[in-house]
């Protein structure tokens, strides 16, 4: 979908912790119209944006183009009644893991915003440096303009994609939402293994980190399939082939990754129900 150009329209950002502030950094860099940020821990913010620490201080006359819900899922019930009045006139973009469009719309209706449009998105933390991957789901009731608005706002923090079926958000959560943690684990394990082979800890840390980030950047910039890039590093009978023979044993990484993604997908499903 082509994203509309131009500045990002006024937003009401509800929750500005890890994910909210990552997104906010991208929006500020991309030209954000005067917006309101609700977070009890933020003392100030860049002008002309307004920071409020409690819902009671939200300005009644503020008309956001979009409400971005970025609190922990368990805090949603507390915050929804406070923002329902804005959801009568603006769509809601939720980045909360596991909270369904139907469940949030029902809570908003109970709080006095019947028919509120809710679009769901799963970003990830590389959004903090504009390298995020966000996958979105919009219910049939959402208009093309509402989808485009969410796409515009999210494209400020990285790449965006859409799924047609909300259940697919569970696997998305398991792969791209949680995925940065798997990559960080890879760096950790490579570092530990390097130390076990006798390298000084500082050097082990440096080469493990740089290898993970450099390989990711090469994959991104080349656009070449991961499997082909792997083959290009693998000479017959060489060191890489020895290592890959261990890692690619069906019971090793293929089984572990499959089980890990399955477990995370199942957990995302449980959280949604
Ligand atoms: N972190 C990730 O990697 C990631 C990835 C994808 C999606 N997400 C989603 O992003 C959402 C936010 O996660 P996070 O890690 O950014 O959470 P977080 O760091 O806890 O940020 C939420 C912020 O909102 C504040 N807040 C909550 N309710 C409030 C209220 N009623 N009034 C004022 N402030 C309030 C919280 O304060 P308190 O702490 O005092 O409640 C906190 O400062 C989650 O739903 C998560 O599923 C996160």
From TrEMBL:
Annotated pathway: Amino-acid biosynthesis; L-proline biosynthesis; L-proline from L-glutamate 5-semialdehyde: step 1/1
NADP in keyword set: yes
Compartment(s) where it occurs, according to its Swiss-Prot or TrEMBL record: Cytoplasm
Record keywords, A-Z: Amino-acid biosynthesis, Cytoplasm, NADP, Oxidoreductase, Proline biosynthesis
A single Gene Ontology CC term: cytoplasm
Domain Pyrroline-5-carboxylate reductase catalytic N-terminal: 13-98
EC number(s) given by UniProt: 1.5.1.2
InterPro entries in the record: 6-PGluconate_DH-like_C_sf, NAD(P)-bd_dom_sf, P5C_Rdtase_cat_N, P5CR_dimer, Pyrroline-COOH_reductase
Enzyme class: oxidoreductase
Residues in Pyrroline-5-carboxylate reductase dimerisation domain copies: 166-271
BP term (GO), one: L-proline biosynthetic process
Protein purpose: Catalyzes the reduction of 1-pyrroline-5-carboxylate (PCA) to L-proline.
PANTHER family on file: PYRROLINE-5-CARBOXYLATE REDUCTASE, PYRROLINE-5-CARBOXYLATE REDUCTASE 3
Family membership noted in the UniProt record: Belongs to the pyrroline-5-carboxylate reductase family.
Name of the molecule in the record: Pyrroline-5-carboxylate reductase
Protein species of origin: Gluconacetobacter diazotrophicus
Lineage, broadest ranks: Bacteria, Pseudomonadati, Pseudomonadota, Alphaproteobacteria, Acetobacterales
Gene: proC
């Amino acid at each position: 979908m082509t994203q509309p150009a131009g500045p990002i329209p006024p937003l009401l950002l509800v929750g500005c912790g890890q994910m909210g502030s990552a997104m906010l950094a991208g929006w500020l860099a991309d030209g954000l119209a005067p917006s309101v940020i609700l977070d009890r821990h933020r003392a100030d913010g860049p002008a002309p944006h307004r920071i409020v620490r409690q819902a009671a201080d939200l300005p009644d006359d503020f008309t956001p183009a979009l409400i971005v819900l970025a609190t922990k899922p368990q805090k949603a019930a507390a915050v929804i009644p406070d923002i329902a009045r804005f959801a009568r006139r603006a769509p809601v973009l939720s980045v909360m893991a596991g909270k369904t469009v139907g469940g949030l719309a029902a809570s908003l209706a109970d709080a006095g915003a019947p028919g509120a449009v809710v679009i769901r998105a799963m970003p990830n933390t590389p959004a903090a440096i504009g390298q995020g991957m966000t996958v979105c789901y919009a219910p049939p009731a959402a208009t093309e303009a509402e989808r485009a608005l969410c796409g515009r706002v999210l494209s400020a923090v990285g790449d965006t994609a859409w799924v047609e079926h909300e259940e697919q958000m569970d696997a998305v959560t398991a792969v791209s939402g949680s995925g940065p943690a798997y990559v960080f684990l890879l760096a950790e394990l490579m570092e530990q293994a390097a130390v076990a082979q006798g390298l000084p800890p500082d050097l082990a840390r440096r080469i493990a980190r740089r290898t993970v980030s450099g390989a990711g950047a090469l994959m991104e910039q080349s656009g070449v399939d991961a499997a082909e890039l792997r083959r290009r590093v693998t000479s017959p009978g060489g060191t890489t082939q020895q290592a890959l023979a261990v890692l690619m044993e069906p019971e090793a990484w293929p089984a572990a990754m499959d089980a890990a993604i399955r477990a995370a997908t199942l957990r995302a499903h449980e959280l949604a129900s």
